[in-house]
Amino acid sequence: EYAYGSVEKVEVNGDLKQVITDSETYEAPVVIIATGSQYRKLGVEGEEKYAGRGVSYCAVCDGAFFKDQPLAVIGGGDSAVEEGVYLAKLASNVNIIHRRDQLRAQKILQERAFTNDKIDFTWDTVVTKINGDGQKVTSVSTHNKKTGEDGELKVNGVFIYVGVIALTEPFKELGITDEQGWIKTDELMRTSLPGVYAIGDVRAKELRQITTAVGDGSIAGQQAFNYLESLKD
Ligand SMILES: Cc1cc2nc3c(=O)[nH]c(=O)nc-3n(C[C@H](O)[C@H](O)[C@H](O)COP(=O)(O)OP(=O)(O)OC[C@H]3O[C@@H](n4cnc5c(N)ncnc54)[C@H](O)[C@@H]3O)c2cc1C
Hints:
The chain is of the alpha/beta class.
């Protein structure tokens, strides 16, 4: 049975769970949460217009489109630096634009980036606009927060790493999320609530990819079956 709707809340009353959507309330002994995550947007002009046409949030997915071309990476955490180093293998050069004067990324990643001669850094700077020719990205407009100077950096691609948000708002009262909002599970996808499982990107995990999401799903499916069987005892 399939149903469509946006889940607003889940309530757990012992063995029975209620899934409250914008139109209906469903009851079931098992709930498997797979609401995923969302890349945090920069929120500047041009970001939406050029999404998929130069603006990307995934280096492994889109990096190969920019072979020998200049790229900007926005952010200063682990993802920005790790992906910047990856992109430098493909691009002509990578400029990491960070709003502070130092990186938040782990030291080992920082060293890899600082010693890579294809990577430059633009410090204390925010991107204020992503520019293009109507079809694809051609540059980014920048603003230096310390000097107040505005600038423009010619690039063909912009990779944005300013955070990822777990889509766990409907479950926040269940007490199953960590400080960042990801759902905590054990390796059998069980949350701390019996009969409530979480799989895929929404889970607190290391690698958020299709392969790991599918693996999580298989495990949760089997666990849910076992749980339903145990209710019959
Ligand atoms: C641009 C991009 C490129 C990627 N490229 C690759 C790649 O090349 N290879 C790879 O392995 N992975 C890639 N990924 C990652 C991959 O897409 C995810 O790991 C995978 O989709 C996770 O699956 P999921 O089911 O956990 O979440 P999702 O696929 O995100 O599905 C979650 C679903 O839940 C729905 N939802 C959310 N909240 C609610 C709610 N309250 N009520 C009802 N429904 C809700 C959403 O609308 C969505 O349909 C990419 C991701 C992005 C964004």
